[in-house]
Amino acid sequence: MNLKPSHSDISRHEGCTIQGALSITAFVDDAITIIHGPAGCTHQSSAFFYSALMYNGYYDVPFMLSSELGENDIIFGGEKKLSDTIEKALAYNPKAVFVIGTCVSATIGDSIEDVCREFTTVPVIPVNTAGFLGGSFTSGFEEALLAVSALIAEDESAVLKKQSKPKIPSVNIIGEKNLESDIDENYEELKRLLKLLSVRINIRLARHTTVDDIRNMKRADLNIFREKFPDNITDHFTQKTGLKYIEEFPAGFKGTIEFIKKIAEHLEIDPEYALRAEEKYQQSITEEFSDIKGKTINFDSFGFQNADYDILSEMSEYFGIKVDDDGTEIPIPFSAPVGSTGIKRMLHQWRRFLRNAE
């Protein structure tokens, strides 16, 4: 029995485990994800993705299959139904198949792992997503990251192949949030910062990536995680790839400068050009938004957002902005803006709210 107390907020991170897992597996473009449960689970997840992606301006809803468990399957077991659905998925010639469990399949005791092991033509990978056992959107997301990593090549061929080419440092980006409204803007900012150091991106796990991309993660020189993940996630990818890592995307002016220094240190690159260029860019942002200096604002948390971002304090102090309950209400972003350009977008929003309040 799940005795966890009810949550007192409505944070999106406590949504369905299945949808958290799908936000990783469904974005491996040449793989297929099966939801092993009643058709309603897949329908609800499809509707969720359709709504979230459309809201963010994306119209390519990921393809997914359902094992469509019915009454008889729930009474007598659904493993045969799952096996048939995997056969159906293989008819599309995917490079891999992911199988996501549901509360129903876990309750009736179906062994998804055993069924997946019966198939050997392509990787058929189970994802642990029994939400009623205390899972959440976040736990589903993390379990899917671990499951997808099973595709990383175990031998050294990828490393040898990398060494046969001219040495251009590269990184793996791990754990981007596919439902994040600014995901592509954040990626472009990260790419801009890496370009200052002449570093390229090997793979985005998992943002419209392929099975072969994942297999070749060892070709990179460093892992960069979207945000701070639990140690079991970072340690797992360190073990699987043999690479050191940066634990999160940069946030704030100071954080962006430190990010450049860390990348350069790990990859043994001289950071001076990149640091000078970024400091010049940050100075231009400061000059562009000099008109908001001295204003009074109040951060609106919507009742559940985290108002403790260091970045909010850094920017308000940097621009001499007073934070007071009587100030103009400014919405807190769902996640900290990434890099200097993220700060610039945030300041555009602050300026708009301040002008509307005049």
TrEMBL record:
Annotated GO MF terms: nitrogenase activity
Presence of the UniProt keyword Ligase in the record: no
Pfam name, any one: Oxidored_nitro
KW Flavoprotein (keyword) present: no
Domain Nitrogenase/oxidoreductase component residues, every copy: 16-296
Keywords attached to this entry: Nitrogen fixation
Entry superkingdom: Archaea
InterPro entries recorded: Nase/OxRdtase_comp1, Nase_comp1_CS, NifE-like
Coiled-coil zones: none
SUPFAM superfamilies membership: Helical backbone' metal receptor (SSF53807)
Family: Belongs to the NifD/NifK/NifE/NifN family.
This protein's name: Oxidoreductase/nitrogenase component 1
Protein species of origin: Methanoplanus limicola DSM 2279
